[in-house]
């Protein structure tokens, strides 16, 4: 009996060793196949003229091809680990992309997944560039995407030679904020998304009080310094999803997505206090320091308005806030 048990135990050990050797061989073969597949995918990615990127289920970029760097200006080290929407997607498109990606389920229809779409994307220098993009789901979760830049041409004799790129300045040279052209472009996009995605936004018109008198008293060079200081404070103290534009000499627009007039007023009052905290001397101001006033306007599905009408509402609200002598933001009736 002991001899029989010994033989059986030996057979079990031999079978176990053989199974382990076989399993190890299979694992090695599988690893080799995966390595071959990864090399082939890398070769395909670099052979195409499209940029390739991957991002996980929460939108964090996990891979980035050399062609993506050529299109967007970002290196892999710059973007891997950052959110795709916050890095590549203009602010007015971000919420729609995030909703579409987080809400996507296999087999359901999507506005952006499993179809090629034309959209705007952000270059590393802050420009918006037109691209085509196709996003598809990845085994194990997350997404892959191919992106191709759409060439922009202008007729000969316009901004450049035939076949050249059209360069339309969208930033203010003094403050590096978006300019009025970019605001109008962004608002046009946003208006199209309000009905489709149920988005809403406040715009706040921020105007420096007694700025003409300030320039007359302290000089234009000092006035430019103040414009830059106010721009930096508005941009640095805004939420990550907000956008700030310089639309006139001393006028700024803050686009506040997903804000009501009530919550927007709270945000704008905070901005006003932040600017007063700069403590820029102004002898023409009752407080002795530079101050700003603000007016709010609302854009949502119930208040669809053209850009000009929306800005006019903000101007009316700004006038009312100044008439009240407290500078607090107001909204048109």
Based on the structure given, which CATH architecture of the largest domain is correct?
2-Layer Sandwich
Number of helical runs? Answer: 10
Distance between the termini: 100 Å
CATH class of the largest domain: Alpha Beta
- General form: elongated
The biggest beta sheet is recorded as: 5 strands, antiparallel
Give the CATH superfamily of the largest domain.
Reverse transcriptase/Diguanylate cyclase domain
* Order of neighbouring strands in the sheet with most strands: 2-1-5-4-3
Q: Could you estimate the helical fraction of the residues in percent?
A: 40-55%
Overall radius of gyration? 28 Å
CATH topology of the largest domain: Alpha-Beta Plaits
Are there runs of 5+ residues with pLDDT below 50, and where?
Answer: 160-164
Structural class call reads alpha+beta
Question: How many strand elements?
Answer: 9
Describe this entry's structure for a reader:
The protein is α+β, with helices and mostly antiparallel strands. It folds into 2 domains: 51-149, PAS domain (Beta-Lactamase, 2-Layer Sandwich); 180-323, Alpha-Beta Plaits, CATH 3.30.70.270. The protein has helices at 2-47, 66-72, 76-79, 84-88, 91-102, 180-197, 211-218, 220-236, 261-276, 307-323, and strands at residues 51-55, 61-64, 116-122, 128-137, 143-149, 201-208, 243-246, 251-257, 292-299. The longest helix has 46 residues, at 2-47.
């Amino acid at each position: 009996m002991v001899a029989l048990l010994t033989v059986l135990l030996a057979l079990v050990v031999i079978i176990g060793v053989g199974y382990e050797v076989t399993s190890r061989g299979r694992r090695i073969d599988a690893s080799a196949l995966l390595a071959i597949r990864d090399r082939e995918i890398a070769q395909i990615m670099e052979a195409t003229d499209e940029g390739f990127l991957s991002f996980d289920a929460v939108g964090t970029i996990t891979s980035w091809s050399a062609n993506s760097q050529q299109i967007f200006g970002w290196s892999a080290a710059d973007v891997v680990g950052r959110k795709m929407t916050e890095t590549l997607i203009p602010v007015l498109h971000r919420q729609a992309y995030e909703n579409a990606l987080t809400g996507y389920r296999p087999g359901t229809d999507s506005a952006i997944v499993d179809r090629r779409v034309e959209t705007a994307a952000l270059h590393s220098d802050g420009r918006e560039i037109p691209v085509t993009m196709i996003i598809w789901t990845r085994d194990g979760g997350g997404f892959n995407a191919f992106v191709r830049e759409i060439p922009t041409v202008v007729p000969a004799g316009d901004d450049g030679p035939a076949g050249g790129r059209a360069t339309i300045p969208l930033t203010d040279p003094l403050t590096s904020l978006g300019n009025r052209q970019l605001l109008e472009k962004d608002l046009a996009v946003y208006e199209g998304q309000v009905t489709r995605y149920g988005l809403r936004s406040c715009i706040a018109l921020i105007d420096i009080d007694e700025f003409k008198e300030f320039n007359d008293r302290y000089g234009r060079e000092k006035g430019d310094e103040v414009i830059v200081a106010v721009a930096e404070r508005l941009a640095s103290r805004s939420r990550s999803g907000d956008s700030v534009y310089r639309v006139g000499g001393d006028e700024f627009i803050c686009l506040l997505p997903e804000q009501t007039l009530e919550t927007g007023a709270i945000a704008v009052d905070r901005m006003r206090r932040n600017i007063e905290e700069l403590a820029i001397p102004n002898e023409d101001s009752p407080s002795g320091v530079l101050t700003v006033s603000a007016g709010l306007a609302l854009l949502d599905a119930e208040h669809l308005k053209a850009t000009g009408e929306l800005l006019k509402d903000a101007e009316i609200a700004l006038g009312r806030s100044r008439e009240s002598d407290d500078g607090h933001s107001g909204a048109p009736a």
